[in-house]
Amino acid sequence: MSEKGQSKYEVLLQMCKIISKWGGSMPGVDCEAVIRHGIRKYTDEVGNLWVCLAEYWMRQGLFDKARDVFEEGLCSIYTVRDFGVIFNSYVRFEEEMVNMMDYQEEEGRSEETLLEHIDNILYLRQSTVRGASQESQVAFRMERLESLLERRPLLINNCLLRKNRHNVKEWLNRFALLRQQQQSLIQAFGEALTQIEDKQVVQGSLSQIWLYIA
Length: 214
Fold this sequence. Notes:
Helix content is about 70%, strand content about 0%. The protein is mainly alpha-helical. Helix 3 (about 45-60) runs antiparallel to helix 4 (about 65-75) and helix 8 (about 170-175) packs antiparallel against helix 9.
Protein backbone atom coordinates (compact mmCIF):
# COMPACT_ATOMS: atom_id res chain seq x y z
CA MET A 1 0.00 0.00 0.00
CA SER A 2 1.16 3.58 -0.67
CA GLU A 3 1.23 6.33 1.93
CA LYS A 4 -2.22 7.36 0.66
CA GLY A 5 -3.61 3.87 1.19
CA GLN A 6 -3.53 2.95 -2.50
CA SER A 7 -2.71 -0.55 -3.66
CA LYS A 8 0.21 -1.18 -6.01
CA TYR A 9 -2.27 -1.68 -8.83
CA GLU A 10 -3.99 1.66 -8.14
CA VAL A 11 -0.62 3.44 -8.12
CA LEU A 12 0.32 1.78 -11.42
CA LEU A 13 -3.02 2.65 -13.02
CA GLN A 14 -2.68 6.27 -11.95
CA MET A 15 0.81 6.40 -13.44
CA CYS A 16 -0.38 4.82 -16.70
CA LYS A 17 -3.17 7.37 -16.99
CA ILE A 18 -0.60 10.16 -16.68
CA ILE A 19 1.59 8.47 -19.29
CA SER A 20 -1.33 8.02 -21.69
CA LYS A 21 -2.11 11.74 -21.48
CA TRP A 22 1.37 13.27 -21.34
CA GLY A 23 3.60 10.51 -22.72
CA GLY A 24 4.19 12.42 -25.93
CA SER A 25 6.08 15.06 -23.96
CA MET A 26 8.21 12.62 -21.95
CA PRO A 27 11.42 12.17 -23.98
CA GLY A 28 13.42 9.10 -23.08
CA VAL A 29 10.46 7.27 -21.55
CA ASP A 30 9.26 4.13 -23.32
CA CYS A 31 5.60 4.73 -22.54
CA GLU A 32 4.34 1.62 -24.29
CA ALA A 33 6.81 -0.60 -22.41
CA VAL A 34 5.73 0.84 -19.04
CA ILE A 35 2.03 0.18 -19.68
CA ARG A 36 2.65 -3.28 -21.13
CA HIS A 37 4.68 -4.18 -18.06
CA GLY A 38 1.58 -3.48 -15.98
CA ILE A 39 -0.57 -5.56 -18.33
CA ARG A 40 1.74 -8.55 -17.91
CA LYS A 41 1.86 -8.14 -14.12
CA TYR A 42 -1.88 -7.76 -13.44
CA THR A 43 -3.42 -10.28 -15.78
CA ASP A 44 -6.95 -10.15 -14.33
CA GLU A 45 -7.33 -6.36 -13.89
CA VAL A 46 -5.98 -5.14 -17.18
CA GLY A 47 -8.96 -3.60 -18.95
CA ASN A 48 -8.14 -0.05 -17.89
CA LEU A 49 -4.45 -0.57 -18.70
CA TRP A 50 -5.26 -1.64 -22.26
CA VAL A 51 -7.42 1.46 -22.59
CA CYS A 52 -4.55 3.63 -21.30
CA LEU A 53 -2.29 2.21 -24.01
CA ALA A 54 -4.89 2.82 -26.71
CA GLU A 55 -5.41 6.38 -25.46
CA TYR A 56 -1.66 6.98 -25.58
CA TRP A 57 -1.60 6.18 -29.31
CA MET A 58 -4.76 8.24 -29.90
CA ARG A 59 -3.07 11.30 -28.49
CA GLN A 60 -0.19 10.75 -30.88
CA GLY A 61 -2.72 10.74 -33.73
CA LEU A 62 -1.89 7.08 -34.47
CA PHE A 63 -5.47 5.82 -34.64
CA ASP A 64 -4.66 2.55 -36.40
CA LYS A 65 -2.23 1.66 -33.60
CA ALA A 66 -4.92 2.51 -31.05
CA ARG A 67 -7.32 0.22 -32.88
CA ASP A 68 -4.71 -2.56 -32.93
CA VAL A 69 -4.33 -2.20 -29.15
CA PHE A 70 -8.08 -2.51 -28.61
CA GLU A 71 -8.14 -5.66 -30.76
CA GLU A 72 -5.13 -7.13 -28.97
CA GLY A 73 -6.71 -6.43 -25.60
CA LEU A 74 -10.00 -8.07 -26.55
CA CYS A 75 -8.09 -11.16 -27.70
CA SER A 76 -6.07 -11.37 -24.47
CA ILE A 77 -8.34 -10.72 -21.48
CA TYR A 78 -9.99 -13.40 -19.34
CA THR A 79 -12.77 -11.60 -17.45
CA VAL A 80 -16.12 -10.16 -18.49
CA ARG A 81 -15.31 -7.03 -16.50
CA ASP A 82 -12.14 -6.36 -18.49
CA PHE A 83 -14.00 -7.16 -21.69
CA GLY A 84 -16.63 -4.54 -20.90
CA VAL A 85 -14.03 -1.88 -20.11
CA ILE A 86 -12.13 -2.42 -23.37
CA PHE A 87 -15.11 -3.02 -25.65
CA ASN A 88 -17.05 0.03 -24.45
CA SER A 89 -13.99 2.26 -24.91
CA TYR A 90 -13.41 0.75 -28.36
CA VAL A 91 -17.01 1.48 -29.39
CA ARG A 92 -16.77 5.08 -28.15
CA PHE A 93 -13.56 5.49 -30.13
CA GLU A 94 -15.16 4.26 -33.36
CA GLU A 95 -18.25 6.40 -32.74
CA GLU A 96 -16.11 9.49 -32.37
CA MET A 97 -14.19 8.68 -35.52
CA VAL A 98 -17.55 8.79 -37.34
CA ASN A 99 -18.65 11.94 -35.51
CA MET A 100 -15.43 13.73 -36.48
CA MET A 101 -16.65 13.88 -40.06
CA ASP A 102 -19.72 15.85 -38.93
CA TYR A 103 -17.59 18.22 -36.86
CA GLN A 104 -15.33 18.92 -39.83
CA GLU A 105 -18.29 19.79 -42.07
CA GLU A 106 -19.43 22.66 -39.83
CA GLU A 107 -18.55 25.99 -41.46
CA GLY A 108 -16.26 28.37 -39.68
CA ARG A 109 -14.83 25.77 -37.29
CA SER A 110 -11.09 26.30 -36.95
CA GLU A 111 -8.67 23.54 -36.02
CA GLU A 112 -8.15 25.10 -32.59
CA THR A 113 -11.90 25.26 -31.93
CA LEU A 114 -12.29 21.71 -33.16
CA LEU A 115 -9.64 20.41 -30.77
CA GLU A 116 -11.25 22.26 -27.89
CA HIS A 117 -14.62 20.76 -28.83
CA ILE A 118 -13.32 17.21 -28.74
CA ASP A 119 -11.04 17.49 -25.72
CA ASN A 120 -13.27 15.00 -23.92
CA ILE A 121 -12.63 12.42 -26.64
CA LEU A 122 -8.86 12.48 -26.32
CA TYR A 123 -7.98 15.20 -28.83
CA LEU A 124 -9.00 13.13 -31.83
CA ARG A 125 -7.77 14.82 -34.98
CA GLN A 126 -8.79 14.41 -38.59
CA SER A 127 -7.94 10.99 -39.99
CA THR A 128 -8.80 10.72 -43.66
CA VAL A 129 -8.33 8.18 -46.41
CA ARG A 130 -6.29 9.88 -49.14
CA GLY A 131 -8.33 10.43 -52.28
CA ALA A 132 -11.58 9.30 -50.70
CA SER A 133 -14.70 11.47 -50.67
CA GLN A 134 -16.28 12.69 -47.44
CA GLU A 135 -19.25 10.37 -48.01
CA SER A 136 -17.12 7.29 -48.62
CA GLN A 137 -15.06 8.00 -45.49
CA VAL A 138 -18.21 8.25 -43.39
CA ALA A 139 -19.55 5.03 -44.92
CA PHE A 140 -16.26 3.22 -44.28
CA ARG A 141 -16.16 4.33 -40.64
CA MET A 142 -19.81 3.40 -40.13
CA GLU A 143 -19.19 -0.08 -41.54
CA ARG A 144 -16.26 -0.53 -39.19
CA LEU A 145 -18.37 0.49 -36.19
CA GLU A 146 -21.23 -1.79 -37.21
CA SER A 147 -18.82 -4.68 -37.72
CA LEU A 148 -17.44 -4.21 -34.22
CA LEU A 149 -20.92 -4.24 -32.68
CA GLU A 150 -21.85 -7.37 -34.65
CA ARG A 151 -18.69 -9.14 -33.44
CA ARG A 152 -19.46 -8.54 -29.75
CA PRO A 153 -21.18 -11.89 -29.01
CA LEU A 154 -18.31 -13.90 -30.51
CA LEU A 155 -15.65 -11.74 -28.85
CA ILE A 156 -17.16 -12.21 -25.40
CA ASN A 157 -17.54 -15.93 -26.10
CA ASN A 158 -13.82 -16.06 -26.91
CA CYS A 159 -13.12 -14.36 -23.58
CA LEU A 160 -15.22 -16.84 -21.59
CA LEU A 161 -13.61 -19.84 -23.31
CA ARG A 162 -10.14 -18.47 -22.60
CA LYS A 163 -11.15 -18.32 -18.96
CA ASN A 164 -12.39 -21.93 -18.98
CA ARG A 165 -12.06 -24.07 -22.09
CA HIS A 166 -14.03 -26.86 -20.41
CA ASN A 167 -17.25 -24.84 -20.28
CA VAL A 168 -19.69 -26.84 -22.42
CA LYS A 169 -22.37 -24.14 -22.30
CA GLU A 170 -20.04 -21.62 -23.92
CA TRP A 171 -18.97 -24.09 -26.60
CA LEU A 172 -22.64 -24.66 -27.46
CA ASN A 173 -23.11 -20.89 -27.58
CA ARG A 174 -20.15 -20.71 -29.93
CA PHE A 175 -21.65 -23.30 -32.25
CA ALA A 176 -24.88 -21.30 -32.37
CA LEU A 177 -23.02 -18.09 -33.20
CA LEU A 178 -21.15 -19.81 -36.03
CA ARG A 179 -24.05 -21.81 -37.47
CA GLN A 180 -24.07 -19.71 -40.67
CA GLN A 181 -20.29 -20.04 -41.15
CA GLN A 182 -19.70 -23.67 -42.06
CA GLN A 183 -15.90 -23.69 -42.09
CA SER A 184 -15.64 -21.81 -38.81
CA LEU A 185 -18.26 -24.09 -37.26
CA ILE A 186 -16.34 -27.22 -38.28
CA GLN A 187 -13.18 -25.72 -36.83
CA ALA A 188 -15.03 -24.95 -33.58
CA PHE A 189 -16.20 -28.58 -33.35
CA GLY A 190 -12.60 -29.77 -33.64
CA GLU A 191 -11.36 -27.26 -31.07
CA ALA A 192 -14.03 -28.27 -28.58
CA LEU A 193 -13.30 -31.99 -28.90
CA THR A 194 -9.54 -31.52 -28.51
CA GLN A 195 -9.65 -28.95 -25.70
CA ILE A 196 -12.40 -30.18 -23.38
CA GLU A 197 -11.27 -32.69 -20.77
CA ASP A 198 -14.14 -34.84 -19.56
CA LYS A 199 -13.14 -34.72 -15.87
CA GLN A 200 -13.01 -30.92 -15.87
CA VAL A 201 -16.28 -30.23 -17.70
CA VAL A 202 -18.54 -27.52 -16.26
CA GLN A 203 -22.05 -26.36 -17.20
CA GLY A 204 -22.95 -29.42 -19.22
CA SER A 205 -21.47 -32.69 -20.39
CA LEU A 206 -19.22 -33.77 -23.23
CA SER A 207 -22.08 -35.82 -24.65
CA GLN A 208 -23.89 -32.57 -25.47
CA ILE A 209 -21.08 -31.66 -27.83
CA TRP A 210 -21.36 -34.98 -29.63
CA LEU A 211 -25.14 -34.66 -29.82
CA TYR A 212 -24.84 -31.19 -31.35
CA ILE A 213 -22.39 -32.45 -33.95
CA ALA A 214 -24.62 -35.41 -34.77
